[in-house]
Write a structure and sequence with these properties.
- The chain is α/β, with parallel strands linked by helices.
- It has 9 helices and 8 strands.
- It has a single domain (5-266), classed as NAD(P)-binding Rossmann-like Domain (Rossmann fold), CATH 3.40.50.720.
- The protein has helices at residues 14-25, 37-49, 65-78, 105-120, 122-126, 159-183, 201-207, 214-226, 252-266, and strands at residues 5-8, 29-34, 56-59, 84-87, 132-136, 189-194, 236-238, 241-242.
- Strand 1 (5-8), helix 1 (14-25) and strand 2 (29-34) form a beta-alpha-beta unit.
Length: 275
């Protein structure tokens, strides 16, 4: 049996590093993503020192859609068959900032980058026996609100509001992607999750608080990536168990509209829906 290839974005620290570590310890070949080559190489060194074999560096600035495409090209070269894509990387911004693509930075890194990266890698995920896309959302999605008019940037910015909206977008994307993958007959499945309130740079910067360990924070991502006990594609998880997402996070009409707008803004072809 060939070794499964799995990619983790934002693997240089926090939950991402611990996720890469746990997946590697389970025998996967991990493509460890960081913002630049030096950080990615350092991440692989630390994983290797911790006993992970065969970890490989990939890199790209997720605030740039051109860099996301370049990252996808690296992953395609390393993993013709990609078993798992863990969209883990995320930011919390306290001030509004626009990217070169004209996106608000929180939305760029937390929504548009994983959205585009997933589409760029779907053929590689399809080439695996049962590819999975794992989207790290947050319980903060419960307080998020977003409409099509908020893309590519919230009409009114505040740091927490943008973060919560981006995490809601992760859930919306997971639902819509699950429908469209099913419609095309793909074996690829997708899941969203809340990792817990974990002590990370994002939590300390954004909320000024501490939480549980990163080891516990990686647990649900690893479960969604590897467990045979996962439920239907599109399911939301917390504490390695299926959990309800917010009531307003189930809106097929809005999910479709946001998906189509995101395709338009990132320049990727939408997956068809069944008619």
């Amino acid at each position: 049996m060939s070794t499964p290839m799995m990619m983790v974005s934002g693997a240089s620290d926090g939950i991402g590093f611990e996720t890469a570590l746990q997946l590697g310890q389970q025998g996967a070949t991990v493509l460890a993503h960081a913002r630049n080559e030096a950080k990615a190489q350092d991440t692989v060194k630390r994983l290797t020192a911790a006993g992970v074999r065969g970890a490989r560096p990939v890199w790209g600035d997720l605030s740039s859609m051109a860099a996301v495409r370049a990252l996808a090209a690296q992953v395609k070269a390393e993993a013709p068959a990609l078993s798992v894509l863990v969209n883990n990387a995320g930011v919390f911004m306290t001030a509004e900032e626009a990217t070169a693509d004209g996106f608000e930075l929180t939305f760029a890194v937390n929504h548009f980058a994983p959205f585009l990266l997933t589409h760029e890698l779907l053929s590689n995920l399809d080439a695996a026996p049962a590819g999975r896309v794992v989207n790290v959302s947050s319980v903060a999605h419960q307080r998020g609100r977003v409409t099509v008019a908020d893309l590519p940037a919230p009409r009114r910015f505040d740091g927490y509001g943008a973060y919560a909206a981006s995490k809601l977008l992760n859930v919306y994307f997971t639902h819509e992607l699950a429908r469209r993958l099913s419609a095309k007959g793909s074996r690829v499945t997708t899941f969203a999750l809340h990792p817990g309130v974990i002590t990370t740079k994002l939590l300390q910067k954004g909320f000024g608080m501490a939480g549980a360990t990163v080891a516990s924070g990686a647990r649900t991502s690893v479960f969604c990536a590897t467990s045979s006990a996962v439920g239907a594609s599109g399911t939301y998880y917390s504490d390695a168990r299926e959990a309800p997402c917010a009531a307003h996070a189930n809106d097929p009409g809005l999910e479709r509209a946001l998906y189509e707008k995101s395709c338009e803004l990132t320049g990727c072809a939408p997956l068809p829906l069944a008619h």
